[in-house]
Structures are given as C-alpha cells and as structure tokens.
Q: What sequence folds into this?
C-alpha cells in the first residue's frame, strides 16, 4: 500500500507517514464498535424494558425475544471479533500487540507515559510523537477494554448458558455462577462492567478527537486508512 | 429401637399396611421421582430387603419453615416417609420424646450405626461468641452438629439456612451464621435450598436416597440436579409474556389482571434455580407467580442481600454505606467522565487560544 501524501505540504517538510493499523485491525475496530453499541442498547433494554405496556396475545409478539436475540447475536460477533483480534496480535505488526501487552518493562515506555501525562495535564505545549498508541492509551485500552471485554465475554456466556445450555453452560455457567455466588450477582457485575467499558468509550472518543486536532499526528483517519501522518518534522 | 434394623416392609406390615397398598405406594413413589414404571418393582425390592434408614434431624438457627413445608408433602405423604421409609430417630419438633430422653438419641444412634445414618440439618450454626447465639439442650449448636456429623453417612442441608445462610447470614450477619458446609467439610452434603424447600422436593430427596442407597446426582452447587437443574423462569407459564415483552407495570394494572410477566415488578424467576414452576406448591395448587407475586429467589445464595424484592436491578454497595443499582452507579460514573471530558476540552481550548506563538513556532 502506497503512502498517501498530504499535498498542501511540500515533501520533506513533514515526517514520512507510517502504516500502523493493518486492515484486519481497522475492520475489527469498527465491527467491534457496531457490536458493542448494539450490546449496550439491548443490554440496557433487557435490564429495564422501558417500552410502554404492550397489548395482544403473546404469540403475536416477540419484542423481548428480539431484543435478547440481537444481544446474543451481537455478543457472538463481539466475541468472534475479539478472538480474531487476539490472533492478529500474534501475526500482525508490532502495533497490533500494544493494547494486549503494554511494554511496562521498558524504561522508554514509562518515559513516554510521563510525557503523555504532562501533555494531557496541559503542562507541555507540544504533544510527544508516538507512532502507535501512546503508553497511557495502551494502559487504558488494556485495563478498560481488553480486561473489560474478557470479563463481559465470560460473564455474558455464563448467563447465556443458563438458558441456552450446551457449550456455554459447560464452559462458563458451570464455574462462573458458583464463583459469584449466584445468577443475580453475575447479572449485576455484567451490568456494572458495561458501564466500565462505556466510561472508557467516552474518554476514548474525546481523546482521539482532541489528539486529531491538537497533537502532531493524525489519529481518527489512521483508524480508517491505516496510515499515521505527521504534521511536522520535529522529533 | 431393636438392635437389628427392621426393613421398610417389616415396619409397614407391622403397621397394618396390606401388600396391595404397599405396592401402590411403591408405584406412586416411582412416579413422583419421575422414574419409569419398571422402577416400582425396584423400589418394592429395596423396601423389602433394606433396613430402614436412621435419620437424625437437627435444628439450628432457623424458623422451622422447612419442617412446616415437609409435613405438607402430598406425594409421597410425609407420614409415609417418617413412619415407613425412614427411622426418624431424632427431630426435636416432631418426636414424642422430650428432654434428656430425646437428647440421648444424638449420642446413641451415631454410636450404634456409625456411617449408616443420615444427618438432616435445618438451620445453621452461628460461630460468633463461640456459638453462643444458638444453644440447644444446653450446648452450642455448632458443637453438637459437628459431633453428630462425624459418623454420618451423608448430610442433608434443608433450606436456605443450612445451604447458604439465609436471613441470619445476610449483611451484617452479627452472629456470624454460616452454612453447614463451612463446619462439616468431610461428608457428602446434599443441599436442598429454599425458604422453605418444596415439600415434594424434600420427601423426593429422601425417597431417592432410601430407594437407591445413594445420593441423587448433584449439580456444581451441591443441589439435586433433578429439582434445581433449571430456573423458575425456564418453565414459567408466564414465559410467553416475557418473550413478547408484555410486563406488569404496577400491581393493579391491566397487565396484572391479564397475567403478564412480573419481570419489571422484581420477579427473581430468571435468576432462581428451583422447581416451583413445575412441581408447584401445596400438592400442585399454585406457586408465587401463579398467585400474581414475583419470585423472591429464596433458594438462591444471598437472596436477602440481592434485594429489593420489587426491583429488577439489585441494590449493591451496602457494604460501602451506599445503596444503588448498577445503572445508578454507571450513570454517575459516565456523567463524571462526560463532565471531566468537557472540562478538559474547555481547558485545552483556553490554553490553546491564550498562547502567543513564538517566532520559531509559526
């Protein structure tokens, strides 16, 4: 794939673009967003079915049934996407590993973390230059998204297995329900963890837009075309 | 009690039961256990050849609702269970003996039939202050429980108290009441939770043990899978209204009159493993949901702490002095995140626009 060049700037004035987010990562990101949005909406409706009281014989209606069906299908898409993303961690480029294995053992990682924090606390006027995710984003994506998603997949399929039986009952329901004490506790934690990921999404969306405007590199378009473009040539 | 244990059949014939009635009883028991007709013969053979099972039924911290439920069993009749199937050698609320004579059974039976008797426990032991919150016959219940359990063949935990702790173990649990599996760790324990358990489930469990001389298949929580394998919700006759999305919104609305699903009224059927919606209560007459009230989840662990009974979302955080649902906590956190994001955006803009660029920057 050839690098797009920003035509308003003469060549050599800015750093050369870097291909960061490979196609599978980009597809996963947007499919994941789509599945997660459906999961949040249907999940909230399952917890609190807020539609007005319906009238009619139940064999004509399947409203709660469809809400749950969409939740379950989205959950499968979310889970399969997550599995493919984990596979891509092994075969993709170095940036594909960042959100799963933040390099907490590296001094440079911590140095960049500190630089990012100074930038976000409005202490530094200029953003540090990062090719992939900055260390703070890596840590947040690991703690909120990766762990949160794993927790939701495990608790979600445990709850699914209660009604559906089969492999999810054997694989998850059998040990998750006793671990939490009961089905009600699993419901409550599954619900809380949704908010945990949603808080991350709020901050994530704000941060990418702010970075796109204020930092020295492209952020939003990078998740669409894959290329990280830089706005200047300084280190 | 005779030195050699009489068989069930000996006892029944001695009590005047005819052979015909005996065989009818065996068929009914087989039907109640959901066994195929051939098993009626197996039950008859077992009752003719096996000695009656000695059962010691102890009461700890509890309300006796399990016993109240038990004596209402319709099939098998609880009187049949007590008088014909087992040898109930101790049960302080049902036995004729009293005082020292009664208490003697708790030492005599384990000495006479070590490893052969079943210990049934209703209620649980409180551990705080060395067990002083439950004294029976002048001694802490926890000590007597452990002594009697030491030589038992198996232990039945009746009800939510013995199985999970129930109301006395709900927060803040001042007496430190614990389920019996916390103090009896080396015996097979069969948990029959519920507050109380369904009568037919209780007698069914005993019938199974007597008939097959083994414990029924237990699930991962130690409950008999045949009665606790499914949620109330899975077999609820109002389930079509749940799938349709037709819910009762208040106790006297049109939906309540039409028998809509009680999910939004806090029904715990979707999270409760019990046989109420199939076996029902009082000989199959009804069960809470059929009577128009949601399930309160009485056979689930911590059901008192997962309230309120009339809300779909459980209150959490009582340990931190706050009571809120997952949604209230989540909305607060999301609101704080949005406010933080807005404040940060404003500060970034102010910082950006108040800065005068130096020569090198432009």
A:
């Amino acid at each position: 794939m050839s690098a797009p060049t920003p035509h308003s700037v003469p060549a050599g004035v800015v750093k050369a673009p870097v291909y960061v987010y490979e196609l599978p990562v980009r597809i996963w990101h947007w499919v994941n967003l789509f599945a997660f949005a459906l999961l949040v909406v249907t999940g909230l409706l399952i917890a609190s079915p807020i539609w007005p009281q319906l009238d009619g014989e139940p064999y004509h209606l399947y409203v709660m049934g469809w809400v749950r069906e969409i939740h379950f299908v989205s959950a499968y898409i979310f889970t399969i996407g997550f599995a493919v993303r984990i596979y891509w961690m092994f075969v993709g480029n170095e940036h594909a590993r960042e959100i799963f294995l933040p390099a907490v053992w590296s001094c440079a990682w911590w140095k960049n973390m500190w630089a990012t924090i100074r930038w976000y606390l409005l202490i530094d006027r200029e953003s540090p230059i990062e090719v992939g995710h900055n260390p703070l984003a890596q840590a947040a994506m690991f703690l909120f998204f990766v762990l949160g998603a794993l927790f939701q997949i495990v608790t979600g399929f445990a709850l699914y297995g209660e009604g559906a039986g089969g492999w999810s009952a054997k694989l998850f329901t059998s040990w998750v329900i006793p671990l939490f004490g009961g089905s009600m506790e699993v419901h409550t934690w599954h619900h809380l963890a949704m908010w945990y990921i949603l808080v991350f999404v709020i901050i994530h969306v704000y941060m990418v837009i702010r970075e796109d405007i204020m930092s020295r590199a492209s952020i939003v378009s990078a998740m669409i075309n894959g290329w990280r473009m830089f706005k200047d040539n300084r280190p | 009690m005779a030195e050699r244990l009489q068989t069930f059949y000996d006892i029944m014939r001695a009590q005047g039961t005819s052979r015909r009635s005996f065989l009818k009883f065996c068929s009914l028991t087989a039907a109640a256990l959901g066994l195929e007709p051939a098993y009626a013969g197996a039950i008859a053979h077992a009752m003719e050849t096996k000695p009656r099972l000695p059962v010691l039924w102890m009461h700890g911290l509890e309300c006796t609702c399990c016993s109240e439920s038990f004596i209402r069993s319709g099939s098998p009749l609880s009187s049949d269970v007590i008088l014909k199937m087992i040898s109930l050698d101790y049960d302080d609320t049902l036995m004729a003996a009293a005082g020292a004579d009664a208490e003697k059974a708790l030492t005599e039976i384990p000495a006479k039939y070590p490893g052969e008797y079943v210990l049934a426990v209703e209620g649980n032991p409180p551990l705080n202050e060395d067990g002083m919150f439950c004294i029976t016959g002048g001694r802490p219940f926890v000590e007597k429980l452990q002594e009697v359990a030491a030589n038992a063949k198996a232990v039945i935990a009746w009800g939510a108290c013995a199985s999970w702790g129930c109301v006395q173990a709900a927060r803040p649990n001042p007496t430190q009441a614990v389920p019996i599996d916390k103090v009896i760790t080396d015996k097979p324990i069969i948990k029959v939770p519920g507050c109380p358990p369904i009568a037919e489930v209780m007698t069914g469990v005993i019938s199974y043990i007597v008939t097959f001389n083994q414990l029924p298949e237990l699930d991962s929580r130690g409950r008999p899978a045949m009665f606790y394998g499914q949620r109330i919700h899975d077999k609820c006759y109002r389930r079509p209204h749940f799938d349709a999305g037709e819910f009762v919104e208040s106790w006297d609305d049109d939906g309540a009159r039409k028998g809509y699903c009680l999910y939004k009224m806090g029904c715990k059927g979707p999270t409760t493993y019990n046989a109420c919606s199939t076996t029902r209560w009082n000989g199959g007459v009804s069960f809470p949901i059929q009577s128009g009230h949601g399930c309160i989840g009485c056979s689930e662990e911590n059901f008192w702490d997962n309230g309120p009974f009339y809300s779909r979302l459980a209150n959490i955080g009582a340990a931190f002095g706050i009571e809120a649902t997952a949604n209230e906590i989540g909305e607060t956190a999301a609101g704080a995140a949005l406010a933080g994001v807005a404040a940060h955006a404003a500060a970034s803009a102010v910082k950006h626009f108040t800065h005068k660029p130096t020569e090198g920057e432009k």
